[in-house]
Amino acid sequence: MRRLLLWLAFILPTVAGAQESFATFARAVTNDAAVLARIDDILADPPVRTEDIGYYGFEDALPSKRALMTMLYRLSEAGALISVEDKSVSNLPAALTEAEVIAPDPENRFLTLPGFSGEGANSPRRDPLIALRRGFASHVDALNAAAAARGFTLIEVRKEGDELLLWPAPVAAAEEWSGVVLAPGVTLVPFDGVTYWSLLTYELMLDERDSALPDGLQE
User: Fold this and answer.
1) How far does the signal peptide extend, from start to end residue (predicted)?
2) What is the pLDDT of residue 140?
């Protein structure tokens, strides 16, 4: 029912129908009164300028889409959603650690991408690509397990673009919102590593053959 209501709200000609649904999602993500007040203002009067929306290419979008994208940007800006871009997506474990979603990993059980040293994607070990492909699915599983150990379920806000956007959701909230389509092209899905891998192949400048999904990942 929530999915149907969100979809119907989004396709209304104004943001009025979407406002309540988006506000409900925002309140599931954060309880920061100042952030929520700002989001209420955004939903009531969606911005038009790129610098206010926070994402390129939405100046001429429907008010509801502009409101949604601006809301997502402000939630990530506030730290309620975790954002990493394609040029630095290998920093995801560090970003999750900094946000205290996962515990520090001094023994590098999952903090370091398979096949690379702790200095990031520019510090290869022997045969780094082979190790990366073989160990990537387990790396994603380890990140999910580490988040679960702290009471979070990693939910991806899956959308087009050069960003991986994650919501470290409480378990009950994750169960309620997983699978919800916030808007056409914007869906909440369990973190499965697919977008993570896609952006990582850009960061590492892998060719088409090496960019294929590793074993253990499914689109």
Assistant:
1) 1-18
2) 95
**pTM of this prediction?**
0.87
Question: Where a domain ends, among 80, 104, 123?
Answer: 80
Last residue of some domain: 80, 98, 133?
A: 80
CA 200 distance to own-chain centroid: 14
Phi then psi for residue 192, to 5 deg, are -120, 0
H or E element that contains 132: helix 128-149
Q: Which whole number is the average pLDDT over 163-181?
A: 97
Q: State how far the Cα of 42 lies from the Cα of 38, in Å rounded to an integer.
A: 6
Task: Give the pair of three-digit tokens for residue 194.
Answer: 């697919």
145 and 219 inside one domain: yes
CB contact at 8 A, 211 and 182: no
Is the pLDDT reported for residue 191 higher than 80?
Answer: yes
Beta strands in 49-177 (DSSP E): 82-85, 152-158, 163-170
Q: CA dist 4 to 19, 64, 67, 72, 101, Å?
A: 15, 16, 19, 20, 31
30 and 102 belong to one structural domain: no
- Report in angstroms the alpha-carbon separations of 102 from 20, 71, 96, 168, 208: 32, 25, 6, 10, 32
Model pLDDT for residues 123-155, shown as the tens digit of each residue: 444 478 888 899 999 999 999 999 999 999 999
Paired tokens of 143: 């990140």
Q: What range defines the domain where residue 66 resides?
A: 1-80
Picking from 125, 105, 108, the residue whose alpha carbon sits closest to that of residue 116 is: 125
